[in-house]
Amino acid sequence: MMRPPSLFPLFxxxxxxxxxxxKLAPLVARAAGPLVRDLAFLSPSGLILRSEATVRSALDxxxxxxxxxxxxxxxxxRRGQPWRIRAHDDTGFVNLVWFKGxxxxxxxxxxxxxxxxxSGRLERFGxxxxxxxxxxxxxxxxxxxxxxxxxxxxxxxxxxxxxxSRLALEALSRAPALEEWQDPDWLAxxxxxxxxxxxxxxxxxxxxxxxxxxxxxxxxxxxxxLLAHHLAMVQRKARRRAEPTxxxxxxxxxxxxxxxxxxxxTGAQVRTLGEIRDDLASGERMSRLVQGDVGSGKTVVxxxxxxxLAAAGRQTALMAPTEILARQHFESMAEPLEKxxxxxxLLTGRDKGxxxxxxxxALADGSAGxxxxxxxxxxxxxxxxxxxxAVIDEQHRFGVAERRRLMAKGxxxxxxxxxxxxxxxxxxxxxxxxxxVSRIDEKPPGRQPVVTTxxxxxxxxxxxxxxxxxxxxxxxxxxxxxxxxESEFLDVxxxxxxxxxxxxxxxxxxxxxxxxxxxxxKDRVMAEFAAGDIAVLVATTVVEVGVNVPxxxxxxxxxxxxxxxxxxxxxxxxxxxxxxxxxxxxxxxxPLSATAKARMEILRQTEDxxxxxERDLTLRGGGDLMGLKQSGLPNYRFADPLxxxxxxxxxxxxxxxxxxxxxxxxxxxxxxxxxxCELFDWRADDAFAEAS
Length: 692
Hints:
By secondary structure, the chain is α/β, with parallel strands linked by helices.
């Protein structure tokens, strides 16, 4: 669909706004985005409230509007002093102060005896009253131009707040009145304004209460955005299901692979596998997300799905975000699949020469039923005989274009996305409205509980002494170094310092791994740790430490208060994978905030990632919940999936009902809803969570 002409003013570049030249445009784009629409959709982050007062009645620190008479100008007597204008009203004197010149201009514009109106923050120093850099100083008859309330926008360094405010209001003035796309009865029941009026109210809050996500205007705009998003997701899901694919029935080959496993599947694994098999047998394309904690058995379920595809003559590609994880998947799957006659190959960027050509040939002629790899899988030279399933591990680590390129290597390719980040049910609709979701919420039998303790950093010496004792018995440990700052360099410094300290104090061998190391060096260190040659692995969080090391029974997390609950929970999941008793030590710098205390208490009480996700949602009520920014949480402009949870459900229901009656949006309301989708750039063939 071509963008309707009514939206052209909003989709113009910000450089079309008055005063936005080559220097200003990048700053405005960083604050809002590259389009006029982005500025019009920029929500205020605060509010300036001004009150009319007199010099005597004004409170210290209050934003005031004063009616004044100019007395005299007081130029600076030496370098570094400000320019002052002394003025008065009937109740007292006030100094208007400028620290950056402007003296001659001020003297011409505001001569002694002139009646003026000034606004700004009044401060008191003993008996003296002062306003530094007044917001306004103008002729008394222009007093009406000073707003009693004024929105403040989240800015960027180098961009004056007043300039951003002016541009946001100019962008708002370009927003057209559009035909109503919402159901009239629904609008009347909610008492919401029209779209244009809601946008106007957003930019002109009169009180701080008007900044709340619960106002009628905020809810109206949030529902518009959510409805556009859900329409796109429902359409995507319908389009995928409309692509016919040969049904795949449960096969004896897959039964044999399952029967040869040295353990029995958990109830959650059986349930998830049943859902996958139902999808495969339906004759429709599968697009399923499998959620589960680290170590819950997602890979085993994916492997059994691979066996079902192989029995039907179809191939599978499993793509992992790092070579370490790809190798781990390959090592866990290759033996049981090869035993059943399913050739498995590992393909990474390091494969060269004849070995690489042999693997590529096996994929092209169909003799390899499964390929496990990294980004190398979507390269053009990788061709499949009959690709039927793509398994994407930690799917949020891949871009939309990358997933599309892999899926395009076959016809009507099924998708299984794996995620070790448990998602609260409240957010599942928002994140995965176009995917079917399975939860593996049980741990395999035999997994040992991890005893979690919180210890102040002042006792780090005793932790190291205890570490020396247990590593002397052959145990292994992770030591995760703190997130020092938003700087990988500083994180590496912290890790190097801790590794050097532990090397001095332990007789056991200490290894170090961080994101600045070459990939080959990281692989070597991880392999040595997995083989037991390294006893203590010091690591930063920028590197994936997902290698399965059953002998690792201790996890020390330094400065645990700096980590999110999701990171702490997933790092803890790296231990407790073998038969030995395991422990996680959360080293923290006191005093702890109330939130940090609650976070650590949650970790001490439970290892259930889904329960932790729900409690984190309640605890924080917003922000980057359970690492969801990395998991693909939409970058909404108006909607807050937590504050607007009820609207999320309503938008999902409305989208399903609308598209059930009008799948191509060709009715009168459908035509208007297409404008809505264009307005927010949510389209069925576009980016979010696209699985085709």
